[in-house]
Design a protein that fits this description.
Blueprint (H helix, E strand, L loop, with lengths): L5 H14 L2 H17 L5 H33 L19 H11 L1
Length: 107
């Protein structure tokens, strides 16, 4: 058993982008990941590995979309406000474990 190939992930992300259902898919995969984490079957490690791979790809796509949105907002303000703000330099490392802990705590 192996995880998905880069091509398969790219195709999956492309279809999500075309369907414009990124937030729904993030919720669906995170719920599946929480369920897989709670289920201690034989294929548990494999399933969690695949879901984590998909979840990271979705979060990367979300970050890319947010960056494009932010860039379009920055460009529309004009040249008088081109300095960086503290939030511009913030790290983008979102940990899957932290997101899932929040989701588990809420539900």
């Amino acid at each position: 058993m192996s995880v998905y190939t880069d091509y398969q992930i790219s195709e999956y992300i492309w279809s999500i982008r075309q369907s414009d259902v990124l937030h729904l898919e993030i919720d669906r995969i995170s719920t599946s990941l929480v369920d897989a984490e709670n289920d201690r079957k034989k294929d548990h490690v494999y399933e969690v590995r695949q879901l984590t791979q998909i979840f990271r790809a979705l979060l990367t796509e979300k970050a890319r979309q947010e960056a494009v949105y932010e860039m379009s907002n920055h460009n529309s303000r004009g040249t008088q406000d081109t300095g960086t703000r503290p939030a511009d330099n913030a790290g983008s490392g979102v940990r899957v474990r932290n997101i899932l802990k929040e989701k588990i705590a809420r539900g």
